[in-house]
Amino acid sequence: MKITEVMTNILGPGGLASSNRYQIAFQFTDNSKLATAVGIDGTVQAPEIYENTATSLTRKAAKLSYLADEVNIPGFSVSTGDFEGHLPGMNQKFAHTKTYRDFTITFLMDHRHLPYDMLHKWAEFIFIPQSTNGVSVGLSGRARNNYVLTNYYNDYTCNMVIDKLERQDNTTMGARSSLYLYNVFPYLINDITVSNGPNQPLKFQASFYFEYSEAVTYD
Known about the structure:
Elements: H1 3-11, E1 22-27, H2 32-38, H3 46-49, H4 56-66, E2 68-71, E3 76-87, E4 90-100, E5 103-108, H5 114-126, E6 127-130, E7 147-150, H6 153-156, E8 158-168, E9 172-189, E10 203-209, E11 212-217
Antiparallel strand pairs: 1-8, 2-5, 3-4, 5-10, 6-7, 8-9, 9-10, 9-11
C-alpha cells in the first residue's frame, strides 16, 4: 500500500489530528450569580469573541481560553460486576456504573493574573466569609472572620465545553468534536513556584470536578 493511498483514504486531506488546536469555555452566564462573582462572561467560544467589538467580559473569557496552556480532556471508566454460574465454568462481567474522572487545566499566568484571580474569586464564592463584630484585621487588610458558609451547589457550579479544533479543507478552523461538561467546579489549585533562576512563563494547575459529560462530533 502506498503512503499516498494511506493519506488519501485513511487520513483524508487534513491529515492527523493536532494536539495544539483546542479551545475551552466556562459558561458562567448560565449561572448569573457565579458570572457576577468571577466577572467573566463565557457564553461564546474563544476565537469567535476575541475582537475589539466584544465586551470586556467576553474578551476575558477569550483570554482565559488562550491562557489554558494544557487541558486534559477527561475520559470515563465503567465499573463491572461478576455474574457466575449461568454457564458451567464461565463467568460473565456486566457493566453497572459509568464513572467520570476529574480533569486538570494548566494555565499560563498573564501580567494581570487573570486565571489565578478568577479561580480564587470562584473559591470565595463557594465559601462565603461571614463578617462578625470585633474581629482583628489580617495582613490583607480584610477582617478575619470566625466562620464561613458554603454556598448552594447550583449556584457555584457551571457548565463547560472543550472544543477540539481542526482545519477544514486546509483553510478555516472549526470544531470537529466537543465535550460538554456539566456542573463543573474547582477543587484544587496547585502551588505556584517562583525562583531567582532564568525567567520563564509562569504556570499553575487547577483541577475540577464535574457530574457528567456529553461528547458531540461534527461531520
